[in-house]
Design a protein that fits this description.
Elements lengths: L22 E2 L6 E2 L5 E2 L4 E2 L1 H10 L17 H19 L2 H7 L12 H4 L7 H22 L1 H22 L10 H17 L5 H16 L5 H30 L1
Antiparallel strand pairs: 1-2, 3-4
Helix pairs in contact: 2-5, 5-6, 5-7, 6-7, 6-9, 7-9
Length: 253
């Protein structure tokens, strides 16, 4: 069977030999059927050419160098949900679940997962409420500035940084739990970024000061985890700022 349709001399799609071709790809000029037609700026493209074109489009970056993927703080909401989910499991299960998740420095060598699981574990309602409230306050703006991937890295490294500080500095057999280290890491990052941008940081400093007083004066509060998370978050933010400066400097040259 021969013939011509919209300038196509071949009668079949190069990807689907059993289907008639309707047009040619605007990039490779191969015949394609309706199922393979992707709208382009001019005409249609086959899937291979279309995907190559998508890859060549520069990614939109956030103000701090992350990849912009929308305004909804997906990572923040995910972290909130994970903390709430673990809290429900802890409250509806036996004490063994808590014992398996909390950070006990003496057990880290053989059970290293405790460095992370402890950062999602809460027992008291006030404890989880105070941590998740601050996560809800500082998480979305930071995620918007950093992008989802960098925000995820910041949160997880802050959580682990707080746990590592407890592991190295805390009592070997004390049990530590909660998202305070991760949240204070976000606060530390926000402080570094805000100062670099010349923004008012009064409320951040006041929050850090109050948290420091509580951490060092009230028993059974892990100052090690708070300090470790805060320092880690501030350090990660500083690295992100330096990377952003490097990218901008490279783009100008």
């Amino acid at each position: 069977m021969t013939g011509e349709s919209h300038g196509v001399t071949e009668t079949v799609c190069y990807r689907h030999p059993d289907r008639p071709a309707g047009v040619r790809c605007q990039r490779c000029d191969k015949p394609i059927c309706p199922a393979c037609m992707n709208d382009a700026s001019v005409g249609f493209q086959c899937p291979s050419c279309f995907n190559e074109g998508v890859k060549s489009i520069p990614r939109t970056r956030t103000s701090l160098g992350g990849v912009a993927r929308g305004s909804t703080p997906i990572v923040t909401f995910t972290m909130l949900a994970l903390n709430v989910l673990v809290f429900i499991v802890v409250r509806t299960s036996g004490p063994q679940v808590v014992n398996d998740l909390v950070l006990v420095p003496a057990l880290v060598d053989t059970e290293p997962w405790r460095l992370l699981t402890s950062a999602y574990t809460h027992v008291q309602i006030f404890h989880i409420f105070s941590n998740l409230f601050m996560l809800y306050v500082v998480g979305p703006p930071l995620e918007q500035m950093l992008g989802r991937l960098r925000f995820t890295v910041l949160y997880l490294l802050s959580a682990v940084g707080g746990s590592v500080a407890v592991w190295l500095l805390g009592s070997p057999f004390s049990a530590t739990l909660g998202a305070s280290g991760a949240v204070l890491g976000l606060v530390g990052a926000l402080l570094v970024i805000s100062r670099a941008r010349g923004l008012d940081v009064t409320w951040i400093i006041a929050y850090v000061a109050i948290t420091a007083v509580i951490s060092f004066t009230i028993p059974n509060i892990s100052w090690e985890g708070h300090l470790g998370g805060f320092v880690t978050g501030a350090a990660v933010a500083w690295i992100f700022l330096q990377d952003t400066k490097r990218r901008r400097s490279k783009a100008r040259t």
